[in-house]
Amino acid sequence: MSSKEFLRGRGAQNNTSNRFLRHVHEMREDFLEFCRLEGEEAESNKTKYIPIFPKTIVNKVDSPDVGMGYSMNPYQGCEHGCIYCYARNTHEYWGYSAGLDFERRILIKEAAPKLLETKIKHKKWKAQTIVLSGNTDCYQPAEQRFGITRKCLEVFLKYRHPVGIITKNALVLRDLDILKELNKHQLVGVNISVTSLSEKTRRKLEPRTASIQKRLKTIQALSENNIPVNAMLAPMIPGINSHELLSLAKAVADHGALSFGLTVVRLNGAIGQLFSDWIKKTMPDRAEKVLHQIQDCHGGTLNDSRFGTRTKGEGKIAEQIHEMAHLAKKRYFKDKTFPRLNMELHERYKDGQMGLF
């Protein structure tokens, strides 16, 4: 496979058609040949940051499979480029592709902190954990430039409101000062995603994420500061990383994680096409085997949309994965528990200051 055939530094290798748009955009061979002869790029591979102006920021999560009641996303799209990411399909709602557009067109919600403050100050709002990154990573590279996540954490601290974080980026440690203050009141829990112990696999699956060692050290640093950490060993992809489950569980436990969760990969919407194209270019020797094993977990298809089974999978391979997870919890997490966050303080801080009584 030549460098011309594979777009390095990105997960997706093309832009799939947007199911909501009437017209389809494609790169014709004669145009690509013209660009080659002229020494020009057919399209830029640089990331573009695009401001958007939503009216609300906190989303109610109705899915029983996700394990959260409310989420918020300072950014839409994600430069991490994880090829399996379920959030890719949501980029189509904004008029973009789930493929390269998802990684190169990052939508920025600079009003997120103010919108969050308005939401949790509302007299009818009762404290429930709001999870940063229910869809796209709040500590993706854009956060270094815009700092929206940090500003949101300052809002959570000001109003003593519980917050969860999901990330695979070591940048979360930049905000250790705020996390420590939140944790004094049991207001924060962090979920660190660790998909493989192999850097070779990580670079293919998640090209612009923090290295595995950085993620493990992030778990360790948070744990040493008594901030509760749950490891997300997800998704488990048969033939790629599922064989690492026990080793992954031991590694995150050794670095201080109090619990772990997992899902079996499902390739819903445009992700099936993107993943199939990607694996045939990156792992041609085992592409068909991996795709067939994923299908074996979902009744012969790459995706299962049924609540209760879509993230767990079915069949022998899925059963083996869950049996290993059960063993890992008994072996490495026997006496560990992830604490419940504090819902009691917020009501007294709705005006931004402590009440007298």
Number of strands: 10
Strand order of the largest sheet: 2-3-6-7-8-9-10
Largest β-sheet summary: 7 strands, mixed
CATH topology: TIM Barrel
Helix content: 25-40%
> Which range does the strand content fall in?
5-15%
- Give average pLDDT, whole number: 92
Q: Topology as H/E string?
A: HEEEEHEHEHHEHEHHEHEHHH
| Backbone shape | globular
What Rg is obtained from the alpha carbons, in whole angstroms? 21 Å
In short:
By secondary structure, the chain is of the alpha/beta class. Helix content is 33%, strand content 10%.
Provide structural commentary:
By secondary structure, the chain is α/β, with parallel strands linked by helices. It has a single domain, classed as Alpha-Beta Barrel (TIM Barrel), CATH 3.20.20. It is 33% helix and 10% strand. It has a 7-stranded mixed β-sheet. Strand 7 (163-167), helix 6 and strand 8 (188-193) form a beta-alpha-beta unit. Helix 3 (112-121) runs parallel beside helix 5 (148-158) and helix 9 (245-254) packs parallel to helix 12 (315-332). The longest helix is centred in the C-terminal third of the chain and has 18 residues, at 315-332. The N and C termini lie far apart (69 Å).
Fold blueprint:
Layout: H1 29-38, E1 48-51, E2 58-60, E3 70-72, E4 75-76, H2 100-104, E5 105-108, H3 112-121, E6 130-132, H4 142-146, H5 148-158, E7 163-167, H6 176-183, E8 188-193, H7 199-205, H8 212-224, E9 229-232, H9 245-254, E10 259-261, H10 271-282, H11 287-296, H12 315-332
Parallel strand pairs: 1-5, 3-6, 6-7, 7-8, 8-9, 9-10
Antiparallel strand pairs: 2-3, 4-5
